[in-house]
Amino acid sequence: MSTRERPGNRALAAARAAVAREYQQLAELVATEDRQFAHNAAAGNAVLAAIAASDAICCLKLGRYHTGEDHRAATKLLGQVRPDGPQLARDLAKVLAIKDQVHYSGVPLPDHRLRSILRSTDRLVDLAERTLTESSNKHDGSDT
What is the span of the domain harbouring residue 111? Predict the structure, then answer.
């Protein structure tokens, strides 16, 4: 485990998945607003949702998560998740690629970019929740 990783467990994964869903819901809500920088705010929340979802997935699947300031390094860790790690890493990388623009540039994010970011975020958040549910079923002995 690198110095930029920490051990993760089911409790942390559940908390991060819940936070991810909250940020995702905020992103979806703000995305409907017709104001110049609403898309930036929506995408900013999508970035936070994707990071939290990635943490949850890594905690559950790998037993560790990335904690460094460079969130892009988390894509390498997420890429280790099987069987969908490479696609998950691409989704996270796509979302992280707009982070600086939407948080710091003052350049409005076009609608088509926001929609693409939201789709990637949705996949990550949905998988975090599904993985958490599957983990719960295994612990309950109620495997289906």
Answer: 5-140
Counted domains in the chain? 1
pLDDT digit string, tens, across residues 88-102: 999 999 999 999 999
Phi (first) and psi of residue 25, to 5 degrees: -65, -40
What CATH number is attached to the domain comprising 132?
1.20.120.330
Q: Tell me how far apart the alpha carbons of residues 7 and 65 are, in angstroms, rounded to a whole number.
A: 7
From residue 47, give the alpha-carbon distance in Å to each of 10, 73, 82, 88, 93: 22, 14, 23, 14, 10
